[in-house]
Write a structure and sequence with these properties.
alpha/beta; 228 residues; six-stranded mixed sheet; binds adenosine-5'-triphosphate; globular
Length: 228
C-alpha cells in the first residue's frame, strides 16, 4: 500500500483569481491508517480528495499503488473508495439491498448474481437483517455502516473517509472507527474525532494549507491539542 504525493499544489478559482488552498506538499503514505487533523478550512478534505481524484492538483503528481490519479482518474476511483460524512449523500436507492446492488453494478452485470453478491456483502457486515429496510428508516450509525458496506463491496484497495464519525453518537462513532481501523484496506481519514485520529498509525496535522506536523496518530493529536 502506498500513496505518493510529489510536490502537489492545489488551487481554487475565486473572483480575485486563483488562490492556493494546498501549498506544495510531498508525502509518502504507506501505513495502514493515516489521520488528517486540523482546524476547519485547513485543507484536510482537499488533501484526502486528491487521493481519489475528486480534487485535481494544479501542480505535482498523485500516485496510488502505481496508479497516476490525474492521468487515470477512472482507475483511481475504482481503486479508492470514498466514505462521506453524511451517508445520505451515498445512499440513493429505496432499500439497503438495492443500494448495495447499485455499488455492484459494474462487477456483477447479471441481476440475480448481483442480488446474491449484495446479500453476501450485507451478511459479511452483519447487516443482512436490514436488507429490505428503507434507508430513510435507518439510524445514523446503521446508515453509515450500510454506506461503508457499499463502498467495500467494490473491493477498493484504499478507503478515504471524510469525517465519517462526525454525525454519530459515541457508541456508533466507536463502532464505525473500529470497523475502519480493522479494514484490510489502507485508510486515509480526515477527522475532528480525536479518539479515532489517535488510533491511526500515522497522523498529519494540516494548518492553512500545509502539513505542519507528521508523526503517529497519537503524536499528531497531542501536537494539534497543544497548538489550539
Ligand atoms: N472549490 C473551491 N473553491 C474555493 N475555495 C475552496 C474550494 N475547495 C476548498 N476551498 C477552500 O480551501 C480551504 C480548505 O478547504 P478543505 O475543505 O480542504 O478544509 P478542511 O480542513 O477539510 O475543513 P473542514 O474541517 O471544515 O471540513 C477552505 O478555506 C475552503 O474554503
Amino acid at each position: 500500500m502506498s500513496i505518493t504525493l510529489d510536490r502537489v499544489v492545489v488551487t481554487a478559482p475565486t473572483l480575485d483569481g486563483d488562490v492556493t488552498i494546498l501549498q506544495e506538499t510531498t508525502l509518502e503514505l504507506t501505513e495502514a491508517s493515516v489521520a488528517l487533523v486540523g482546524p476547519n478550512g485547513s485543507g484536510k478534505s482537499t488533501l484526502a480528495r486528491l487521493v481519489n481524484g475528486l480534487v485535481n492538483p494544479a501542480e505535482g503528481s498523485v500516485v496510488v499503488d502505481g496508479i497516476d490519479v490525474v492521468a487515470d482518474g477512472r482507475a483511481a476511483r475504482r481503486h479508492v473508495g470514498f466514505v462521506f460524512t453524511d451517508p445520505s449523500a451515498q445512499l440513493v436507492m429505496p432499500t439497503v439491498l438495492e443500494d448495495v446492488m447499485l455499488s455492484l453494478r459494474r462487477s456483477h452485470r447479471d441481476k440475480k448474481a448481483r442480488r446474491a453478491a449484495a446479500l453476501d456483502v450485507l451478511a459479511e457486515h452483519g447487516l443482512d437483517a436490514l436488507a429490505d429496510r428503507s434507508v430513510h428508516t435507518l439510524s445514523g450509525g446503521q446508515r453509515q455502516r450500510v454506506a461503508l458496506a457499499g463502498v467495500l463491496a467494490c473491493r477498493p484497495s484504499v478507503v478515504v473517509a471524510d469525517e465519517p464519525t462526525t454525525l454519530l453518537d459515541l457508541p456508533n462513532a466507536r463502532a464505525v472507527s473500529d470497523l475502519l481501523l480493522g479494514l484490510e484496506q489502507q485508510l486515509v481519514v480526515c477527522t475532528h474525532d480525536l479518539d479515532l485520529a489517535a488510533r491511526c498509525e500515522r497522523g498529519l496535522v494540516v494548518l492553512e494549507g500545509r502539513v505542519v506536523f507528521d508523526g503517529t496518530g497519537a503524536e499528531a493529536v497531542a501536537h494539534y491539542r497543544a497548538s489550539v
